[in-house]
Specification:
The complex is a heterodimer of chains A (564) and B (586). Chain A is of the alpha/beta class. Chain A has 15 helices and nine strands. In chain A, strand 7 (491-495), helix 15 (503-516) and strand 8 form a beta-alpha-beta unit. Chain B has 586 residues and is α/β, with parallel strands linked by helices. Classes of the chains: A alpha/beta (564), B alpha/beta (586). Chain B: InterPro entries: AAA+_ATPase, ABC1_TM_dom, ABC1_TM_sf, ABC_transporter-like_ATP-bd, ABC_transporter-like_CS, ABC_transptr_CydD, P-loop_NTPase, Type_1_exporter.
Chain lengths: 564, 586
């Protein structure tokens, strides 16, 4: 990994060097041309000028070629770097999901992954590389100018320094607020537009599409105002650089002309002294834009850091126990005592003092009202969340096991299972990559989707649209169920499997699934009674009872209803 | 990152046409450009004469001081002009972007849902359009300068020293020529690459959204390998394209620096051979040397900003595609004049002869429409589906259906999932059209009725009600077009057992649980019923996310609203079925 990163740094360094050499060629071209013309005016034999003439032509060619090479090298390096970054962010997200990312806002996360990673790439290409070449060129120009005429060198150094500091500082200083404002305004606007498009039919039917549109466009107005603020700072940065250039050219002439008169500077070189600032300023004038780019990229980098530095909700143990919850094979014995589970960032546990023992192969329903912590129980069983109390598989605390090991035994069929934007077959096969079409069709049949599958024109190869949009809520739930049946886990947690189904379909599906799950442990989480005979027993979860804090008044005494 | 231009960028006429103020902005750019050219020429002339005066003329600083001060002023003026231009450009750009965004969104609200991918469209309207900054703030001003500056500089060079002007004149056209040739050569590949970029973005978003699912199946870590392969091949394709695309920049740089070299050598040789002599000769030589690179500078900047503008232009292209789409046909008929027809259609629907005469002013007709809306209260319509068949592209059509929803009663649809219950409701508000069969309110065919009027007399609660950024109250207010009083909103919120009015909601629903979001939608629905008094109520799975206690409480508060209205509910819940006058399954 560090080797790879080093080669990327090397590539970027090479890019910076080539960029500086290209700019130096431009400087040399102008300087030598000035000398050539001044010297030619003295009308020496043309042979005396041959070196200058050849160099002028050489520099004329080298600049273009160097610049072309620099672009290829640096873009390649940036692409490679971004590849690494994207994968690193993905790896971190994998460890955080689903509990560790405070808000799993899909729109915002999309912006984070695509925009922010690209933003960091811009920081290299349009921020760091121009800065590196500008510094190299400025130093070389000052050295040359000082060698010709120390006073002119000092003036140039001062002007370059002023331009390099003031321009970017002005550009970043005032725009910082606007940059921050646009980032959140963009996120809000994206979400707003998305909601507007999703809910279009409802809004149009209610006649409130125009009102909702105006509401969302308020976000656009915020964005526009933020951009207008950036505008003036960009102008200021540009002006600062050009003013410094004006001072540098005037200063070079103001020191050069007396020096020629005094004889400390050869008159032939006066043109060189006057022209060097023009070329030296070219990369420096690009610095405000580079600085603004860097500022934008920094915000992107900060948001990426929020992800990469977020604490893992349930870090895997350093030395995980060897995973063998049931040495005889089959489902493990599950033992839950006084289980308390708190979501990261939450103050109160979502599940408190829960007890449950599940024999291998047993089918248990956990029933409770909304907000009683049913889904939290599922997340804890999947090894997604840390817990207090006892949660043992085959006598070993779940916390001792590696999360991926746990999930090889426990499967979760959740309400919000994602349907990927790909074919039905691929959506199912992620549960068992080796499964053949027969396995897939069987799993769909078990989930009660036989008729649906037969009606699909492309069968298993039917593409399920964006977020499974082309499938109804009930179908989505059953596809998720089929996926879980296909995965063939020893323990399966079904979270509200009948949420979007009519009673008859729900009963049929649950009975078929129960038959398919014979011999496996099944925990069905539900908020309404299940059909007779689907489960062996029902465990009730209490509703959320607010535990009065010692410093807070007891709400129940004041007659205020508990939340939820 | 550099994204590739799908086509050679230029002055996009549609963009300028769409964007009010853009033409003025180009005029401002041209005026500023002319002033900047004057500064460039004056600066070069003053610099050349100062060098020549000191070196060839042997003059002292004192005698040259006025010229030196003039030089300082001219260069400072140039800085000022540049800053004004930059600021003006950003302002113009911000305005154009807002306008484009509004037009696109307004158009999208008229287009059938599902035609454009929502996630990608949202990204296009925000990130894509924002990228137009590169075009307006950087590319376009440089493009104007690239026309104004070379013309001015060439004119001066032609007067001062024709051979140098000729060199510049010969090389300058090579730059756009090669740019166009290379652009044409890479065009189709660049278009594909642009698609690959957005595909890559969507692929990531999809993976991230499904990450919890992938992790549950132990597939998340392995996906990193797949991402590596995808992005790796994306990089290789991008680089092979860039190798060609950067050639246009190479030609530009070569033409610019080589012609400066050639000018320098030509002038130098002429000086040696005595073609140019004296202080004036040196001054001319230096003037053309300083001016020559200035002729190419704007073009080089155009090249530098070309890639920055490409992304925005490609986005603009997609926005124009949206703007060029034909709106949902049912709505095109009703939207332009929702007034006259609304009243007459409604009159037919309610079965009363209160049709306003053709001489009635459109405005008053609209008022009549909303008044008549309240009269058919006693006459809630019977809804009839006669042998209707609905079909989705790429799917087998749903089975033929005939169904009567009796007037003033509550009908619960209990058909199995996927039988088309939501489709029926969407059809009643005109978002789905049956491929055969008909839908009628009393005796009036839906297709003969004015859709806007039909929609005004229906309250529809879809399965997933929309949420916007803001408070719960703001969300509930989306029930009716003309706003609602605070007490009315509070009443609806209480009746729906929705979260507190001041709670904030994000557009993606975060901040609320699924059950709470459902109850916000329900509150909106009840508010609409309260204020508009619609005779038809459609509820799609209104209690799917509620536990049985809340469900019962919500159904209890809903009970008075059902009176004297034609109510259609899709649900399998026993509590909902208990309130039905009639259950329908098919």
């Amino acid at each position: 990994m560090s080797f790879v990163r080093n080669t990327i740094a090397l590539r970027l360094g090479l890019g910076a060097t080539l960029g500086a050499l290209a700019q130096l060629s431009a400087l040399a071209l102008l300087a030598v041309s000035g000398y050539l013309i001044s010297r030619a005016w003295e009308q020496p034999p043309i042979l005396y000028l041959m070196v200058a003439i050849t160099s002028v032509r050489l520099f004329g060619i080298s600049r273009g070629v160097l610049r072309y090479t620099e672009r290829l090298v640096s873009h390649d390096a940036a692409f490679r770097g971004l590849e690494r970054l994207r994968i690193a962010v993905w790896r971190k997200l994998v460890r955080l999901a689903p509990a560790g990312v405070p808000v799993w806002r899909s729109g915002d996360l999309q912006a984070r992954l695509v925009d922010d990673v690209d933003g960091v790439g811009d920081r290299w290409l349009r921020g760091a590389l121009p800065l590196a070449s500008a510094v190299i060129v400025a130093v070389c120009a000052v050295v040359l100018q000082t060698a010709l005429l120390p006073a002119a060198g000092a003036v140039l150094a001062a002007c370059l320094l002023a331009a390099a500091l003031a321009g970017p500082a002005l550009a970043t200083w005032t725009s910082r607020y606007a940059v921050r404002a646009t980032a959140s305004a963009r996120g809000d606007l994206t979400e707003g537009v998305r909601a507007l498009l999703h809910g279009r039919e409802e809004l149009v039917a209610a006649g409130t599409d125009a009102a909702a549109l105006e509401h969302v466009l308020e976000g656009d107005d915020r964005l526009r105002r933020a951009h207008a603020r950036i505008a003036w700072t960009a102008g200021l940065g540009e002006a600062a650089g050009l003013l410094a250039l004006a001072a540098a050219v005037t200063g070079a002439l103001a020191t050069g002309i007396p020096a020629v008169a005094a004889g400390t500077l050869d008159g032939v070189l006066l043109a060189v002294v006057a022209l060097v600032p023009l070329a030296a300023f070219e990369p420096v004038l690009a610095l405000p834009a580079a600085a603004q780019q860097t500022a934008v990229a920094k915000a992107c980098g900060r948001r990426l850091l929020e992800i990469t530095q977020a604490p893992e909700p349930r870090p895997d143990p350093a030395e995980p126990m060897e995973y063998e919850p049931n040495p005889l094979g089959g489902p493990p014995f599950i033992e839950i005592k006084r289980l308390s589970v708190t979501w990261p960032g939450a103050e109160e546990p979502a599940l408190h003092g829960f007890d449950l023992t599940v024999q291998p192969g047993e089918r248990v329903a956990v029933m409770g009202p909304s907000g009683s912590g049913k889904s939290t129980l599922a997340a804890a069983l999947m090894g997604f969340l840390p817990y207090e109390g006892t949660l043992r598989f085959g006598g070993v605390e779940l916390a001792e096991y590696d999360g991926d090991d746990i999930r090889r035994t426990v499967g979760l069929c959740s309400q919000d299972a994602h349907v990927f934007d790909t074919t039905l077959a691929e959506n199912l096969r992620l549960a068992r990559p080796g499964a053949d079409d027969g396995d897939l069709a069987r799993a769909l049949r078990w989930a009660g989707l036989r008729d649906w599958l037969e009606a699909l024109p492309d069968g298993l190869q039917t593409r399920l649209g964006e977020h499974g949009r082309a499938v109804s809520g009930g179908e989505r739930g059953r596809i998720a169920l089929a996926r879980c049946l296909l995965a063939d886990r020893e323990v399966l947690v079904l979270d509200e499997p009948d949420a979007h189904l009519d009673a008859a379909t729900a009963e049929r599906v649950l009975r078929t699934a129960a038959a398919a799950l014979e011999g496996k442990t099944t925990i069905i989480i539900t908020h309404r009674p299940l059909p007779e005979g689907v489960v062996d027993r029902v465990v009730h979860l209490r509703g959320p009872v607010p535990t009065p804090r010692r410093d807070a008044p007891d709400n129940r005494l004041l007659g205020v209803a508990p939340p939820g | 990152m550099t994204t590739l231009a799908p086509k050679p960028a230029g002055v996009d006429r549609r963009l300028l046409h769409r964007a009010r103020g853009a033409a003025v902005f180009i005029g401002v750019c041209a005026a500023l450009g002319a002033a900047r050219t004057a500064c460039v020429v004056a600066g070069a002339w003053l610099t050349a004469s100062l060098i020549a005066g000191a070196f060839a003329g042997g003059r002292s600083l004192d005698s040259l001081a006025p010229q030196l001060i003039a030089l300082a002023i001219v260069l400072a003026l140039r800085a000022l002009l540049a800053s004004v231009q930059e600021a003006a450009a950003h302002r113009a750009s911000a305005g154009v972007k807002s306008g484009l965004r509004r037009q696109a969104l307004e158009q999208l609200m008229r287009l059938p849902s599902g035609k454009h991918h929502t996630g990608r469209t949202a990204a296009l309207l925000v990130r894509g359009i924002d990228a137009l900054d590169g075009y307006f703030a950087r590319y376009l001003p440089q493009l104007v300068l690239a026309v104004v500056v070379p013309v001015g500089v060439l004119a001066v060079m032609l007067i001062a020293y024709p051979p140098a002007a000729l060199i510049v004149l010969l090389t300058l056209p090579l730059i756009p020529l090669f740019g166009i040739l290379i652009g044409l050569y890479t065009r189709s590949r660049a278009e594909r690459q642009w698609e690959a970029t957005s595909h890559l973005a969507h692929h990531f978003a999809d993976l991230v959204a499904g990450l919890p699912t992938l992790k549950a199946f132990g597939r998340a870590a392995k996906q990193a390998g797949a991402i590596e392969v995808t992005t790796g091949s994306y990089r290789r394709r991008s680089m092979s394209l860039l190798r060609v695309a950067f050639c246009s920049a190479l030609v530009l740089e070569l033409a610019a620096s080589l012609s400066v070299a050639v000018v320098a050598v030509t002038v130098g040789v002429d000086l040696v051979e005595g073609g140019l002599t004296g202080e004036a000769g040196l001054k001319t030589a230096l003037l053309v040397l300083i001016l020559a690179p200035e002729a190419y500078l704007p073009l080089r900047n155009v090249g530098a900003h070309y890639h920055a503008s490409a992304e925005g232009l490609a986005a603009a292209e997609q926005v124009f595609a949206i703007l060029g789409d034909t709106p949902e046909h049912a709505e095109t008929a009703s939207e332009p004049d929702t007034t006259g027809t609304a009243a007459s259609a409604l009159a037919r629907w309610s079965g009363r002869g209160s049709t306003p005469g053709p001489e009635t002013k459109p405005g008053s007709a609209a008022i009549t429409a909303s008044r008549t809306m309240r009269t058919p209260l006693g006459r809630a319509p019977t809804i009839m589906f006669r042998r209707t068949v609905f079909a989705y592209p790429g799917r087998q059509p749903l089975p033929e259906l005939s169904l009567t929803v009796p007037a003033g009663q509550t009908t619960v649809l209990t058909a199995r999932s996927g039988a088309g219950k939501s489709t029926l409701m969407a059809a009643l508000v005109g978002f789905r059209q049956p491929v055969s069969g008909s839908i009628a309110f009393d005796d009036a065919e839906l297709t003969d009725l004015d859709l806007a009027a039909v929609r005004r007399s229906i309250a529809w609660l879809p399965q997933r009600p929309v949420l916007i950024d803001g408070t719960v109250a703001e969300n509930v207010r989306l029930a009716v077009p003309d706003g609602a009083s605070d007490p009315a909103v509070a009443k609806a919120i209480a009746a729906a057992h929705a979260p507190a009015a001041t709670r904030t909601v994000a557009a993606d629903g975060s901040g609320l649980s699924a059950g709470e979001a459902a109850r916000v939608g329900l509150a909106r629905f009840l508010l609409r019923v309260d204020l508009l008094d619609p005779p038809v109520l459609l509820l799609d799975e209104p209690t799917a996310h509620l536990d049985s206690d809340t469900e019962q409480a919500v159904l209890d508060s809903f009970a008075p609203y059902r009176d004297q209205r034609t109510v259609l509910i899709a649900s399998h819940r026993p509590a909902v079925r208990a309130i039905a006058d009639r259950e329908v399954d098919w």
